Amino acid sequence: MVCLATIAPGVTHLNLSNCPQITLNGLYELVASLANLRTLSLHGCNGLSAPTGQSWLRALSAIRTLRHLDVSGIRGLKSDMVDTFRQVLPSVHVVS
Description:
Helix content: 25-40%
CATH topology: Leucine-rich repeat, LRR (right-handed beta-alpha superhelix)
CATH architecture: Alpha-Beta Horseshoe
Low-confidence stretches: none
CATH superfamily: Ribonuclease Inhibitor
Distance between the termini: 24 Å
CATH class: Alpha Beta
Strand order of the largest sheet: 1-2-3-4
Radius of gyration: 12 Å
Shape: globular
Structural class: alpha/beta
Number of domains: 1
Oligomer: single chain
Number of helices: 4
């Protein structure tokens, strides 16, 4: 996936829905190199469900241009974590 950032660094919309292989570390490495990313769909990415809130916030805060985030359908992602996303990332519309 980091290769994607090398090939297409200007990506503004990324749909990783139902990608079971993505981890938070992989997501962080990818999004940290996509400086123009505005929309990210992680719907059903259950490989992201186990990590702590701090891991999530580290990955998401790397996306300074993000405006829309879909985290619906991620098994184990609790509503209090989604509420934290909304508080920490107030300019991002979070779909859960």
